[in-house]
Design brief:
Elements (H helix, E strand, L loop, with lengths): L6 H8 L7 H24 L4 H6 L3 H8 L3 H35 L17 H17 L4 H30 L1
Helix pairs in contact: 4-5, 5-6, 5-7, 6-7
Length: 173
Amino acid sequence: KFIGFDLIPQLVEESKFPRKKIIWGFIGSMLCTFLIYGLAVVAVGGIVSNEWIAQTDIVDPRVADILGMHWLALVIIIMGAVTCITTLSGFWLAASRTIFGAAQQGQVTRRLAVLNKHGQPWLANTVVYICSLYFCLMAPDAWINYIFTITVGAAGVVYLCVSLSFLKLRKTH
């Protein structure tokens, strides 16, 4: 769930956070990620077998229950839910920002770049909302997979366009 790293520069852009201090946001997010995932991997790896892991629905809370630490299982479940929320907000922010940026550059209709009174691209957000709602309703069991696939696909197209534009600029200038 490393999607949170891309939120840091976007949140800095929209807040009054000093740009020179953005490195601390990256370092803090990396340390938190390393701490949480590192501890989980070490803990689970020394307690259960690979076969048990393959047959279990959600491993970390079950391991906490095996150890008699039901409170830790609840903490892990809550952290997992928060991770899902932040992952979805990362998808949403990345998708709406991509549409907004494309509208600003004239690659799609400029109406998608219109901001509301809070400085948010409301029409781009509405497009992402409608697409998200469509996938949630049409693929209830695999909606997160579809949203992730579309986000990664869109990022790939954007990176390809940026790379091709760079090569064109390099050749012409």
